[in-house]
Specification:
16 strands, 5-stranded mixed β-sheet, globular
Amino acid sequence: MHSAFRSVPSAVAVLVAGTLAACSPDATNPDPSPSQGPALATASTGNGAPSGEHYNLNIIAVSHPKSGDLTGGGNVIFVNLGTKTTAVTTKILLEQSASAGVFAVLDKDGTDGEAKFSLPAPGSYTVWARALGKPYGQGTLTTCATDVTGAPAAGDICSALHEVFVRGTGKSSFRNVTSNLTTITLDPVLDAAAVDACGGTTVSLFAGCLEGYFWQYDNNGLKLLQLRFYPAAL
């Protein structure tokens, strides 16, 4: 049966780890030279990810800001690199896609502090991730929202739980990060207003009690973070 998992029709390039090694991270081109192929691919045996069709998203860190038209398309988001001792933060703004199974990069340039990604509401897919690139880099992804719906601005609301990715010297394997990338775990004291509005401490991505959902990516020199979205087993 054909999978509904796909990118927008114009975005069919899949960038894999080898592409990163083949191009300079400091290149001024708006996008590395991707291999042409469908956004859906089969997981490699033994890399920790499930087998089957999936949407692939590569978060690539660069040393210098990008330029040109980076409004969207492809399967890449660029962020600032940072160092082992100094983290740089990028907000990957999240927009709920209109159709189930559709994933799309809407703004690939996170070197200005913000990028944008469209994905379905949770439940129909799982999320897997691994760190790639030069060893010893580290990145942290946290699911956040900007505010409680209808309440005065009070600053970002970020999950108490997050995912940390460290690139070691050995083989890098995928792990399931679905829970922390599709829910916000609220602090009952610090986030009391949000807990009251949402009726509990666990909030699903795109739940109506919060607004302005995004992933906060704090990068300490991680060259490539690879995310894969697989259809959930029914």
